[in-house]
Amino acid sequence: MIRLEGIEHDYGRGAVVTGIDHVFSTGRVTAICGPNAAGKTTLLRIAAGLLAPSRGTVRLGDRDLRGLQAGARARRIAFMSQRFDCASGFPVRRILELARVMVGRDAAAISMVVDALGLEPLLDRGIAELSVGQCQRVALARTLAQCPGDGVIVLDEPLAALDPRWAHEASRLLQRRARGGATVLLSVHELAMAARLAEEVLLVGDRRLVASGPTDEVLSVERLEAAYGIPFERLVSGDGTLIPIPGTHSDPSERV
């Protein structure tokens, strides 16, 4: 469990996020949604302990993250950045092995993510030889290989470069990890994906928390319009999921 208490952050150009209070619960996938520059990446980095907030406290369970050494934090929290910053000469196999340096070798943990994300054919290839989508799968695998079953997984746009098949497989994998006892939080731009993947959503906009709670309640037309400043509609997908999409009607009476 990760708890944010009164979180504010300012990079020196004015507040990026302000007044954020939330508990990311164990066993649940939580999506952070909102427009560009709304503070999603800042919130994720604060939650992972990689960025100290200007004000407020982040707790892992009942412990203040500021009191944890880097090694102890790495054994409980794994973070995936939007940008995969890895030496281009390393083969995929070595990258995944290095993910375990701080937490102890575990061939089974690596094998599990290799199988789940279809990386076996890529293990002996260097990152420079891979497509953007393949690199994204490697980055996700590295993050999941590092994190224990009951740890915290923090991901910044982990599905952005994946094709529909691998976005689907990655989503299922994250849901399984949550059901197995992990705390999973991620930023998602694609609202349809957030609707299917997450059990709860934090909707941020204009440097503040617009809404938080169960996915269906937060991804409402009214709240999305408040966050994004454009009209929205909701459609029912084939599996019964309510999918929010940008709409063309400004009159609420015309919405589906």
Set down the secondary structure blueprint.
Blueprint: E1 2-10, E2 15-24, E3 29-33, H1 40-47, E4 55-60, E5 63-64, H2 70-74, E6 77-80, H3 92-98, H4 107-116, H5 132-146, E7 152-156, H6 164-179, E8 183-187, H7 191-197, E9 200-205, E10 208-214, H8 215-218, H9 221-228, E11 232-236, E12 242-246
Parallel strand pairs: 3-8, 3-9, 6-7, 7-8
Antiparallel strand pairs: 1-2, 1-4, 4-5, 9-10, 11-12
Helix pairs in contact: 3-5, 4-5
Written overview of the protein:
It is a single chain. With 256 residues, the chain is an alpha/beta fold. The protein has a single domain, classed as Rossmann fold, CATH 3.40.50.300. The protein has 9 helices and 12 strands. The strands form 3 sheets. It has a 6-stranded mixed sheet, with helices on both faces. Strands 2-1-4-5 form a 4-stranded antiparallel sheet, covered by helices on one side. The chain has a two-stranded antiparallel sheet with strand order 11-12. The longest helix has 16 residues, at 164-179. The protein is globular, with a radius of gyration of 18 Å.
Q: How many strands in all?
A: 12
The poorly predicted ranges are 252-256
> What average pLDDT do the residues reach?
89
CATH class: Alpha Beta
Main-sheet strand order equals 6-7-8-3-9-10
Shape descriptor: globular
Question: For the CA atoms, what is the radius of gyration?
Answer: 18 Å
CATH topology, by name, is Rossmann fold
**Beta-strand content:** 25-35%
The first-to-last residue Cα distance is 37 Å
The topology string of helices and strands comes to EEEHEEHEHHHEHEHEEHHEE
**Helical segment tally?**
9
Helix content: 25-40%
CATH level-4 homologous superfamily: P-loop containing nucleotide triphosphate hydrolases
